[in-house]
Design a protein that fits this description.
This protein is an alpha/beta fold. The protein is built from 19 helices and 15 strands.
């Protein structure tokens, strides 16, 4: 449950600290006193979109901190542990927004993203807004309310997952069928293209190798002449070949080595040079022997290069890309050849998934019917106490007009009659504004009572009711906060004294102006202050003895 709320520099609030308890807590105050500001701050710390306009004028930031008691909430503790946010049973949410638009969120002092804080908030607190009775007429909201009450999350997930998978298979099947319709023309083109490529049979890196070969063959005479001249100068020139000259020098140095051995290193280096020259001559002679002067081979290579270039231009690719194109087109042809097999495979998978989807939808429909039977009785019973004696509520579940949806195959509609002996008709057509508000309130209280969320906030959901019915609403809210099998917490923002008088705890929101500055504060009322507040809510600004007596009577009737 919510234990503590701290607000700083938010809207007209300078600094405010509130402690909350289990049971029913009423928040009252004049219109415009700031009750909605408190709810706005709570929404913000629970992950609502940040707006720097909500920062108090003249301040650089706003900060909201909410502390929750999660000791008995094993699923919340498990979530905190899984996110590495556990702090010995504590659960403190903090939100800080700056004037420059930056927003930061923390759980137990650890920075988190808004998605994480929203996921956690959904397990901690549930807020029912004052305008929810307007949305109850929408079919999507009606379906969601029934599913929330049924608590069949696993069934909903199974249907949704199968729907998504079926949608993907449908798209695959459609694409394959379209390909089948186009395959004849494509097959003719592919076979013609592959016939040309098969005939040419281009190999990986072949064109690059042909360029190298062509360069050598085209310059064979120049290569032969240059190599021959090098061999001649190194070893064959009778007058001045380098080998002979170098040998003579080495011999001369050897003759004087006995006179001065300091030239020995020079003789060794020259010896090494002579060895390298000998090896060079050998390599040059070998190269000369292998120079190909065959003009026929050159012509064959040029023709092969031209054929490759012509086909590459035809396919608008580089010459070296032809082998990859050959492989790609061959793979496409193979795929089309096996298209019928793939089509049968996908069609069989579609049939299999369709069966699984229908079965999952049937289980979901059965669960909805069971929940609807119970909900019909509970809401009908509540209607008798909320000023609609003889009224009846009925949820109709029929096959949906659409073929499939992620929510199943059901069309869900809330129907009602406010008078005995009349047939139920769709809620959106028959119910008045006040009846809608009361039916919505009954739904919210019943669903909330079935919820695993320990903290419930009702924001003026009692609007549109009054008198004895308002007192019954208050009794229902008090009972909701007094559930004996767990520690429930209900916080109700209300303008009705009949509801406020039923609360276990009472807070009054006040707006104060000092030095041309308006601030908001919240006061925890003691017994006498509460009596005065109930009297004010009954009579307005002027509290009379009669209103005080009426307040005493209302408070006296309160019982657990």
């Amino acid at each position: 449950m919510l234990k503590h709320l701290y607000i700083r520099n938010f809207a007209i609030i300078d600094e405010l600290e509130l402690d909350f308890n289990s049971g029913l807590t009423a928040l009252t105050g004049e219109t415009g006193a700031g009750k909605s500001i408190l709810l706005g701050a709570l929404d913000l710390v629970l992950g609502d979109r940040a707006d720097n306009d909500s920062i108090k004028q003249g301040c650089d930031y706003a900060e909201i901190v909410a502390e929750f008691d999660v000791q008995n909430l094993d699923h919340v503790i498990a979530w905190l542990v899984s996110q590495e946010l556990n702090s010995e049973g504590e659960c403190i949410l903090r939100r800080r927004i700056a004037k420059d638009g930056r927003s930061r969120a923390y759980v137990n002092s650890t920075p988190v993203n808004l998605q994480a804080i929203r996921e956690l908030a959904e397990m901690l607190i549930d807020i029912h807004g004052q305008h929810e009775h307007q949305s109850i007429m929408k079919s999507t909201v009606q379906r969601q309310l029934l599913d929330d009450y049924a608590s069949h999350v696993s069934l909903l997930e199974a249907v949704s997952n199968l729907y998504i998978e079926l949608k993907l298979v449908d798209e695959q099947l459609k694409h394959l069928q379209q390909t089948c319709n186009e395959q004849n023309d494509r097959l003719d083109l592919l076979r013609f293209q592959l016939q040309e490529l098969d005939a040419l049979a281009p190999e990986e890196n072949e064109y690059r190798a042909l360029i190298s070969q062509h360069k050598r063959l085209a310059n064979a005479e120049k290569l032969a002449s240059t190599v021959q001249q090098a061999i001649y100068s190194l070893s064959e020139d009778d007058n001045s070949n380098i080998q002979s000259t170098l040998s003579h020098i080495i011999n001369s140095l050897g003759d004087i080595n006995e006179i001065d051995s300091s030239l020995s290193p020079v003789a060794e280096m020259l010896n090494e040079s002579l060895v390298q020259i000998d090896e060079s001559v050998s390599l040059l002679q070998n190269y000369q022997d292998n120079i190909d002067l065959d003009s026929t081979q050159l012509a064959r290579i040029e023709q092969r290069m031209q054929n490759i270039l012509d086909l590459a231009r035809k396919h608008r690719v580089e010459a070296d890309e032809l082998p990859a194109l050959h492989e790609k087109l061959q793979q496409e042809l193979d795929d089309i050849d096996h298209l019928d097999e793939r089509l049968d495979e996908i069609a069989n998978r579609q049939t299999e998934l369709e069966g699984e989807y229908i079965k999952a939808c049937e289980e979901l429909t059965a669960s909805r019917n069971r929940a609807a039977d119970i909900l019909n009785k509970k809401i009908t019973r509540s209607m008798q106490t909320l000023g609609m004696s003889g009224g009846k509520f009925e949820i109709t579940i029929s096959p949906a007009t659409s073929k499939r949806s992620a929510h199943g195959l059901d069309q869900i509609e809330f129907t009602v009659t406010a008078n005995a002996g009349q047939d139920c008709r769709p809620l959106a057509r028959i119910a008045s504004g006040g009846e809608l508000a009361r039916i919505s309130l009954a739904l919210q209280m019943i669903i909330a009572n079935n919820s695993k969320i320990p903290a419930l906030v009702f924001d003026e959901v009692d609007s549109g009711v009054g008198g004895g019915i308002a007192e019954i609403v208050g009794q229902h809210l008090r009972a909701l906060g007094s559930t004996t099998d767990r520690s429930n917490q209900v916080i109700c923002i209300t303008h009705l004294p009949q509801v406020a008088s039923q609360a276990h705890h009472h807070l009054r929101v006040e707006k104060q102006t000092s030095n041309k500055q308006t601030t908001c504060q919240v006061i925890t009322l003691d017994k006498e202050q509460r009596r005065q507040e109930i009297a004010r809510m009954l009579s307005g600004v002027q509290i009379t003895e009669q209103s005080l007596a009426h307040a005493d009577s209302m408070l006296a009737r309160t019982s657990d």
